[in-house]
Amino acid sequence: MITVENLSKTFGEVSALNAVSLDARQGEMLVLVGPSGCGKTTCLRCIAGLERPTSGRIRIGERMITAIEDGVFVPPEKREIGMVFQSYAVWPHMTVFENGAYPLRAMGLRGDEVHKRVLEALKLVQLEPLAERYSSQISGGQQQRVALARSLVGAPKLLLFDEPLSNLDANLRLQMRIEIKELQRRLGFTAVYVTHDQAEAMAIADRIAIMEKGSLRQVGSPRDIYEHPANTFVAGFMGTTNLLQGKVAAKDGAGALVRTASGVEVRVALADGVGPGDAVWVSIRPEAMQIRAGQPAGANAWPATIRIATYVGESIIYRAELGGLNVELHAPPSENYPAGAGVTLAADPRRCILLRE
Amino acid sequence: MELAVTGGVTLLVLWLVFYPVAWLGWAAFHRGAPGDTGSWTLENFALLADTSYWRLVGRSLLAGTGITLVATLIGVPLAWLTVKTDMPCKRLVELSAILPFFTSTFIGGLAWIFLGNPTNGLLKLWFGLPVNVYSMSGIIWVTGIYMAPYMFLFTAAALRNVDTTYEEASFMCGGSLWRTLTRVTLPLILPALLSGMSLVLVISMGIFGVAAILGFPAKIILLATEIYAKTVLTPPNFGAATVCGLTLMAITAGLIVLQRRILRRGSYALVGGRGFRAKLYPLGRWTPLALAACGLYALLAVILPGLVLIKTSLQPYPTPKFGLWTLDNWTAFFEKADLLQTLLRSLYLSTFGATFCVVLTAVIAYIIHRSNAPGRRFLEQVSVMPIGIPGIVMGLAMIWAYITWPVWGSIWVLIIAYLTLFMPYGVRALGATIVQIHPELEESSRVHRASWLRTFVRVVLPLLRPGIYSTWILLFIIFIREISAAVLLTSINTRLFPVLIFEQWTEGYLNVMSAGALLLSLIMLAVIALFKWGFRVDLSPAYR
Fold it and tell me: Which residues of A touch B449 (CB under 8 A)?
């Protein structure tokens, strides 16, 4: 539905996007996520036409909207898109209704048609009763809904979201997250959604594209990305993880054995494309580690010392020292060990992920 | 499109600023008068070997420094009282501190002639105060009290940006009020304060009106008045005037460079992380004293001068007595054949000039803050340069530059001069408004199917409107009261109202002059009132 090919953008000397290629299928919610300055907003603004890329192509359906090499650059207003901005950008000199009617009037529609469609859009976001209010008379969450209605009203081919929830308070953010997801299911629109919040990305995405320093690092479903990160950056950015650096000590049919500099040995189940002696990382999620009393026995069980135990209600977060490294693990609250206790940590080799970079 | 507009505007601004200034530089090295210049020479600079010339320069610097100090000592405490304490009647105090800003040092100076002249000044005859405004200290005092509003506005803006928690943290650490003020508040606003002071110094150095009416009788000549004397009084000496002009401009331009450096170096991150809570310092038993100080300022800067002008304009000659009431001055004024013409001309110039200036500076400010055009930083720097050009120097430069042009002798020379001189005010005020419009408001319009033009008309212009109105009024007021550039550029056919008032003073018709000064003040107040209450325009963007 939307295809981005080799998109690059430089600001003076600084390269904000390096040959990024992406696509989102019809009815799909594609989330661009990454730390600030990773190029995700630049990418979105290039799709919107608010920024002119240095090179690359963008198509919506079959229509080419940007092809710098061929001199094609369709201005934003001709791209038939809707966009929700971080600051909401609800025009303060217009009422809620007028904000909603703006795209329709710019399209040349008048009278009853406009009235009908604006009210329909306002109904979708439960704002019909506030149609005659000005933005100064409604709350931040309501402004967010106005922005959403305005982006939907022109029946755009594509919806863009630029960190739409980052100015809302925590509770409202969770609620709006679900509402946007439900609206998308119901109306079936295609969307590209930018956020820096990995939890939000996981919750709202059909597919996630992770960016770092202007380049794409991995694209996949939330589950894919969490359970099979492509590299240490993705593993560390999406959720919390423990990264153990080491070398492949042995490889066999059941995976490989990785040994860290301090001598900790970790067995991993999947070890394609690496051979003995290769420098690698092993990523173990905090919830993939079990904690128990007593001496370690068998593979992937290591002696460790609890440093700090933090009770957070649904679980206890332990920070422990394992072979000279600090690791974090999440255990059920029933497993109670004090700081300083000697314990055994264990992890299933299938949940110890080998990373090459 | 963007490039063409930026290029065109930059060329226009370069022309406006540098064409007259370049002529001034050229003229310094040539014999003869404007329009009739002779051969190349260095003899104009012989002046520089004269010790009396350096005494003149020193005297001007002394006056400027004194004025700045008076303005600071009045403006800063007033600002602190209104912004940071729980003093009552704040709006009234703020009004009396801003009102002189919206009127004129020149009119204030005229009124002070009656209050403080050494023979029959009212302060002497009524209160026995031995004051003499026809002196250096007179010039410093009178100009200082009318420059105080600038310091008030600069300081108040800076103080509003100081998060109260910084001060509360000082109190929590056991700091007294005095310690907090001198160790926390003052250092935080120091860059803004110093930058404001250098701007006030620049403006004071270029002031002509007060320096002339208080200086000439006592034979105290400053650079600004020397330029006037050498240009207008016979026999004219354009070479000497030009050298004086260049000296004055070198000083003011140097101060502007200094001010830029202060601002760049000292831009503290004043805004605290969290929301502001306007916790006000309780004055307690000091309240009456604070109010009395504010009242004294209002009395000296606004009330007494206003009343004395009213009184004098209704009497046949300057007198401390009441009585002899007459409307002769007013009728004399209105019977003068060219009065109405002069008044209309001034209104015409101010209306059109302010409009041109708003249009030009709106485009400049928009390019500076909202375009990616290369050269927009350069445009910004050039467009605010005239801040460092005193009005009277600009007047002199305009004579050299435009005397052979067909526009010479028409009102357009004055419009061009004013446009150039006051461009920085427009760029600042409109820039401040544009910066407040979130760019996403425009982008959202583009994305939602509106063209560039539709976006400008439907979104940018409506959001800019309050700023445009208030900037227009500010410029209108500045244009209609301006005298420094006008004294050198007006002829019989292009005489402006402030110049007419000045001529009444030269000819000694002090009571008629009072009527004129009052009339000018009333016009300005009427325009402000009309916009503020008639059109509900918020004037604060223009001066904040």
Answer: 77-78, 80, 103, 106-107, 154
Closest CA to B252 of B301, B216, B203: B203
Closest CA to B220 of B380, B385, B55: B55
**Vertex B211 angle, CA B205 and B213, to 5°:** 165
Q: Which of A162, A216, A262, A283 is nearest to A34 (CA)?
A: A216
pLDDT at B182 over 90: no
**How many angstroms away from the CA of B467 is the closest CA of chain A?**
14
CB contact under 8 A, A106 and B459: no
Q: Over the range A255-285, which residues count as b (16 or more CB within 10 Å of their CB) and which as e?
A: bbbbebeeebebbbeebeebeeebebbbbbb
**Contact flag A81-B463 (C-beta cutoff 8 Å):** no
Residue whose pair of structure tokens reads 């007047």 in the numeric block:
B395
- The CB density around residue A344, as the number of other CB atoms within 10 Å, is 16
Chain B touched by A103 (CB under 8 Å): yes
- Provide the 10 A C-beta neighbour count for residue A334: 7
User: Which of A76, A150, A160 minimises the CB distance to B446?
Assistant: A76
Whole-model pTM: value is: 0.81
> By the CB < 8 Å criterion, does A216 face chain B?
no
At which residue do the structure tokens 């009178």 appear? B142
Q: C-alpha A241: how far from its chain's center?
A: 16
Nearest Cα to Cα of residue B61 among B169, B202, B262: B202
Locate the chain B residue with the closest alpha carbon to A159: B447
Distance from CA of B167 to the nearest CA of A (A): 29
Amino acid symbol at B155:
T
**Contact yes or no for B441 and A86 at CB 8 A:** no
The distance in angstroms from the start CA to the end CA of chain B is 33
| B223-236 per-position pLDDT tens digit | 999 999 988 887 88
pLDDT of residue B448: 93
Q: What mean pLDDT is predicted for residues A252-273?
A: 89
Q: What is the three-state SS of A200-253? A: HHHHHCCEEEEEECCEEEEEECHHHHHHCCCCHHHHHHCCCCEEEEEEEEEEEC
CB of B437 less than 8 A from some CB of A? no
% of chain B with per-residue pLDDT over 90: 35
Residue A340 tokens read as 């300083």
Q: Do B448 and A154 touch (CB under 8 A)?
A: yes
Contact B150/B200 with Cβ under 8 angstroms?
yes
How many angstroms separate the most distant Cα atoms in chain B? 74
Q: What is the DSSP secondary structure assignment for residue A11, as one 8-state letter? A: E
* The residue to which tokens 């007028």 are assigned: A98
Q: What is the pLDDT of residues A284-310, one digit of tens each?
A: 999 999 998 888 878 889 999 999 999
Q: How do residues A2-36 score in pLDDT, each as one tens digit?
A: 999 999 999 888 899 999 999 999 999 999 999 98
At how many degrees (to 10) do helices B2-28 and B376-384 cross?
40
Chain A residue with CA closest to B459: the answer is A91
Instruction: Kindly report, residue by residue over A133-144, the tens digit of the pLDDT.
Output: 998 889 988 999
Alpha-carbon span B15 to A305, nearest angstrom: 77
pLDDT at B17 over 90: yes
- Tell me the CA distances in angstroms from B67 to A55, B132, B158, one per residue in order: 59, 16, 21
Whole-number mean pLDDT of chain B? 86
Residue B43 has pLDDT above 90, yes or no: no
Q: Which of B438, B446, B458 sits opposite A50 (nearest CB)?
A: B446
Which chain A positions have a beta carbon within 8 Å of B444's beta carbon? 83, 85, 89, 91, 147, 150
User: What does the alpha-carbon distance between residue A355 and residue A353 come to, in Å, rounded to a whole number?
Assistant: 6
| pLDDT value of position B275 | 44
Identify from B1, B445, B448 which residue to disrupt to test chain A contact, counting A C-beta atoms within 10 A and taking the largest count.
Answer: B448
